[in-house]
Amino acid sequence: MARRSAGDGVLVIGLGRFGSAITTTLDRLGQEVLAVERNPELIRLYSERVPVVEADATNPDALDQLGARDYPVAVVGIGTSLEASVLVTGNLVDLGTPQIWAKAISAEHGRILQRIGAHHVVFPEADAGARVAHLVSGKLLDYIEVEDGFTVVKMRPPKETQGFTIAQSKVRERYGVTIIGVKSPGEDFVYATPETRIAASDLIVVSGHSALLDRFAARP
Q1: What CATH number has the domain bearing residue 166?
Q2: In which element (H, E) is residue 125 found?
Q3: Which of 38, 68, 72, 145 is 20 to 30 A from 199, alpha carbon to alpha carbon?
Q4: Residue 3 lies in a domain
Q5: What letter would DSSP give residue 218?
């Protein structure tokens, strides 16, 4: 395979549900992406939809031959085989990949990936379960946990904020969360300022620690 110029692109290893979702989304967004898979059935399934090569990424020579060291970001989407996941992640660490995102299926798996050098460990099933739990339990309309508990949510405004500006409602002082945007019906999303007035029909986007957001969202 011909060498590509370094500096951009994402290498995705494994075309299971997690890896294929990342690959197809990046491709749709116009991001340069290359998927690596060794299962012929998955290769046939995705070969006409995204760039994909057949290779065994547990073999460091195979990774080197396909130009893996030229990609600044790599995603290890292997979850069913802990051994393969660890081997591939270790190979990417040895290649000096600047950013390695790796899927983990358990806390123990995640700790191993972190210890061998993965920069970001993702728990897709646990994260999805936590997100759904928050959505079905209250007024939250969307929920994204970014990292270390820092979360962004979309929600209906509590009654105590309706009809008041953000400065008047003192949400940050009272609850430790920040209203960062407001979406009024039929209008574009706007970034919030202290003078932004919140109506009962608005949607608000709020950031903060998940525990504080849960407390704020529980307000009537």
Answers
A1: 3.30.70.1450
A2: helix 124-137
A3: 145
A4: no
A5: T
Strand partners for 103: 122
Residues in the chain, total: 220
Beta-carbon-side half-sphere exposure of residue 42 (alpha carbons within 13 Å): 19
Please state, in angstroms and rounded to a whole number, the distance separating the CA atoms of residues 158 and 81. 46
Between CA 156 and CA 162, with CA 157 as vertex, the angle to 5 degrees is 140
What is the pTM assigned to this prediction?
Answer: 0.67
Domain boundary pick from 83, 105, 122: 122
User: What gap in Å lies between CA 57 and CA 64, rounded to an integer?
Assistant: 9
Higher pLDDT pick, 182 / 6: 182
Q: In one letter, which amino acid is 83?
A: E
- 118 plus 18 within the same structural domain: yes
Please count the structural domains in the chain. 2
Q: Which residue has the tokens 């549900």?
A: 17
Angle between helices 107-116 and 82-95 (to 10 degrees): 20
- Give the domain range for residue 179: 127-217
Phi/psi of residue 139, nearest 5 degrees: -90, 0
Q: Please, are residues 178 and 206 in contact by the beta-carbon 8 Å criterion? A: yes
Angle at 21 between CA 36 and CA 106, to 5 degrees: 85
Measured distance CA(57)–CA(68) in Å, rounded: 10
Intra-chain end-to-end CA distance of the chain, in Å: 60
pLDDT score at 28: 87
In the block, residue with structure tokens 């929600």? 155
Residues 115 and 132 in one domain: no
